[in-house]
Amino acid sequence: MLIFNCTEAASTFFSRVHKGKKMTPVEKPSSSVIEDDEQGDSAEQWLVHAITVQRKHVLFVIHVKTRYCMIFADAKKADVEGFVQRFAERWINGLIRHAGQNDILQWVNDEPMMERFQENCGQYTFYKRGHRGAQKHIEQIAWIFEDCAAEWGSLPSDEYSAGRFDGDMNYTLRGGKGHKDYYFPDEEMMVHWLRQYCGLDESDIQAARDRRKEVRRETRELMHQLDQG
Description:
This protein is of the alpha/beta class. About 50% of the residues lie in helices and about 20% in strands.
């Protein structure tokens, strides 16, 4: 189950008025605390926030558990199905790209992975509630995005460009409740995905973590050599 927890601004974004009556997919949850939900670990909890940049709607979506984020520029107001489809495609494509760049694809079996994804994330619901820690990270990311958009003179022109911005944000060290040390959201999401959708055990997950670190180290060394040359 995908659960999109909407801030006040996001709730307004997904709502519309039809014949004088407000129509909204955003429901009131049984608890105002995300961690109280009965779905437990099988639910994918996301926080969604909306702002306007250069007169266009921009959605910021952050995974509550890992702080993995995605930015959806020029979003169409009240288009719930369009948003969910765009969201799922960006999430999967971003993870596959990350796995490819970090030599993680050797641990990914496409068919069963997608079957598990469809089974777990084929349904979704929208709730009106927030999350203080995730909101703080969204505000930081939104500030950076607005600054970048002003420098670019436009919003990202396509999903690939937006995905690159996602990648930069997800390779930013974060800290938060439940984490002893600082962490990279892209690594934590990779681990979550391998565990939840690829069915890997902890030894294989650790091997994937180690390989990612090794590839990152090799890349840094190569960049250093190129700079020296």
